[in-house]
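cron nightly-structures :: item 1 of 1
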Amino acid sequence: MLRWAIFGTGFISNTVIEAIAQCDGSTVAVVAGRTPERVAQMAADHSIAATSLSYEEVLADDDIDAVYIGLPNHAHADLSVAAAAAGKAVLSEKSLTTTMESAHALLDGVASHGTFFVEGLMYLAHPFYEEVAELLLDDRLGTVRSVTGHYAANIWEVVNPAGKGTIYNLGCYPASLLQLVMQTVFGEESFADRSLAAVANQNDDGNVCDTAVSVRFGNGVIASLQSSDSFGTSSDFAIIGDKGTLRFVTNPWMPVAGDNVVTLTQDGVAETIVVHDKHDAFYHQIKLVERCVAEGRTEAQRPSPRHQDSRELMAFLTDWEAAAT
């Protein structure tokens, strides 16, 4: 039984607590945050007995096995390393951080302590992506030539400006799926062999709120991604091969408990492929942590992000931001 500490009291922490409650190998032992009223309310909402206003106090508790860090992106690095130093397994929300310097510090730090760490790109833990990986290698798709994707949600007023805007809050989703596509089809080195150009709009806090990036990989594959946290609630992702197109019908980054759907289209004829599961991605992410800890692993396995994948993805996101601004 993993005894979890939850760091942060935002929406995403509530969702993770609900996922832990469904897992027979985990329990939430304590909720921690900086605002007493919010900490107390979250504990009451989920019938959690223990609360704390000190992350350091929680990390010093030998009865805590795992820590979920649901804080803004800029706060991930220091707390992840501190949790690893205390011997805890760590699940830290995406994006990994907001700079390459802090990303290196986080990953090098957790590796030095030999405890489990995974970046919270929860969608990749869902069994849906085992099926997607098989479809990417299906001869009906042929050779992948192009990838397109976008993710938009009107969330900028409720996210911390220090998290650095839509590239790190939402753009990380299509970027991480693009990474998985390239690695699955063309091998480990393919995603880093690229050039890119980008454009953006910025909001009043100076962060990127709307952006598009165009990428050319060394093997000639072209990709185009868009992200916005200033309007809409929409998602789309398509992989185009020289024989067919694979397109997500349901949200690629929120696999649900129920039907998750893609279509594979050849010569204008679409085949609908449904992957049904009784649990959502957040549940499967907690089960991933349970399995890895039980097996003594220090990182996840694909499709979930390994340490090298998180580092490589951060390089892409920071290059996107630099090109856009």
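cron nightly-structures :: done
The radius of gyration is 19 Å.
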